[in-house]
Amino acid sequence: MRTRDENKEAAIREEAIKMIVKAGFDGLSMQKLAKAADVSPATIYIYFKDREDLIIQLWTGEMEKMAAATLEGFDAAMSFEEGLRVQWMNRANYFMNNQLSMHFMEQIKYSPYENLSRKKMNQTFISIQGEFVHNAIKRKELVKLPLEVYWSVAYAPLYQLVKMHMTGRGLAGRDFKLDDKMMEQTLQLVLKALKP
Amino acid sequence: MRTRDENKEAAIREEAIKMIVKAGFDGLSMQKLAKAADVSPATIYIYFKDREDLIIQLWTGEMEKMAAATLEGFDAAMSFEEGLRVQWMNRANYFMNNQLSMHFMEQIKYSPYENLSRKKMNQTFISIQGEFVHNAIKRKELVKLPLEVYWSVAYAPLYQLVKMHMTGRGLAGRDFKLDDKMMEQTLQLVLKALKP
DNA sequence: TTTATAAAAGAACGAACATTCATTTATATT
DNA sequence: AATATAAATGAATGTTCGTTCTTTTATAAA
Fold first, then answer.
1. How far is residue A20's CA from residue A55's CA, in Å, rounded to a whole number?
2. Residue pLDDT, tens place only, A117-140
3. Do B110 and A107 touch (CB under 8 A)?
4. Which of A74, A141, B61, B110 is most exposed by smallest CB count within 10 Å?
């Protein structure tokens, strides 16, 4: 039998993400995607059940890559400050080096597809985060707070800054570029907020 | 001549937002919208130039309402803590009471329509924010930082929490409900981070 | 009451859509 | 070398899309 050409699937995934980022979900046409990925429309349906399945698979694929990058060099037993710094920097670097992927994930996050994909979220990733926060609170290195509040204070500012950096525009449409100094300053503010 | 029935435009706007929130931008069909708003497809084109114009007008309309609500009782000359608290609470209340609108705005924020709509952003709103931050830094009630860093630390956590509240799910798909106590706690953390 | 005019409607347009069908092609196994 | 089989294709399917055309309807001004 004929063997699969894995390049084809990769090309489809890559072009689909490009297309969604550039033109939104309603800009993702299967026929245009086939043309961009240099395959037949029918070929897409060998690798993906349908349009919705394609989008969900894109999401889970990118999420997994990001989760792996985030946890590099991280250990749930680390001190709060060290652990937060490692994850913060991992995230920041990953986003800065994978802006297309980041943009795609932000787009899907607030779309109706999010509900469909949520159940596929990596459970290990989540439980490591939970353990880390639990440890830090027990050691009194982190104020006592719900997991969601921790998450919001710790990472939402970083996400916001990276998003502004990606578009090149900050508040009031000002030119904006996120640099190391600004990132370090924000991390310090976050630590100040979270340490007892 | 026949007079405009303003209810028609309102119905179109309302149903369009509902439709986008429920099914995303690719779920917004002009013919389905016409049916939902109980008008003819052609009628939509009396009030809106085309589909894109409709979406941009929805965005600017909702933005204006939100900006107005945010500034209620606020004055750029207020002390930092008081001013931040007023805006924080205004935002929180507005979002909690207008979840559909909030959801719609989050969706458009990360879509390609955002670029098209940005230039229409209310400039007064932005300059008031700038003035407030400038004053607070000068009075040494706020650490010296770029406007974007301020914004990210001050409001991104709130947005994140409200979004989780809207979906009813927090981290790891846990049930999540944002209450007054949690909101107050987060505001305190933010103030701690930002005060010198 | 008549007239002028914009609002509103419903049917219709070609274009683009997601998906499938029938056929050809490449390769691992025999 | 022959066979079996899944990959890959291009054309075709019926459907839905955004938008416009022509006609009818309501009302403000005459």
1. 10
2. 666 677 788 889 999 999 999 999
3. yes
4. B61
Closest nucleotide C1' to the C-alpha of A4? D7
ipTM at complex level: 0.91
- Among A109, A171, A192, the residue with its CB nearest the CB of B151 is A171
Give chain B's domains with CATH numbers.
Answer: 1-48 (1.10.10.60), 63-194 (1.10.357.10)
- Full 3-state SS string of B114-157: HHHHHCCCCHHHHHHHHHHHHHHHHCCCCCCCCHHHHHHHHHHH
* Tens-place pLDDT, residues A13-37: 999 999 999 999 999 999 999 999 9
What confidence tens digit (pLDDT) does each residue in A46-96 have?
999 999 999 999 999 999 999 999 999 999 999 999 999 999 999 999 999
Buried-state track B108-135, b at ≥16 Cβ within 10 A, e below 16? bbbbbbbeebeeebeeebbebbbebbeb
**How far is the C-alpha of A13 from the C-alpha of A16, rounded, in Å?**
5
Contact list in B for residue A160 (CB cut-off 8 A) is: 151-152, 156
Nearest to A157 among B147, B156, B161 (CB): B156
How many inter-chain contacts (A to B, CB under 8 Å) are there? Answer: 157
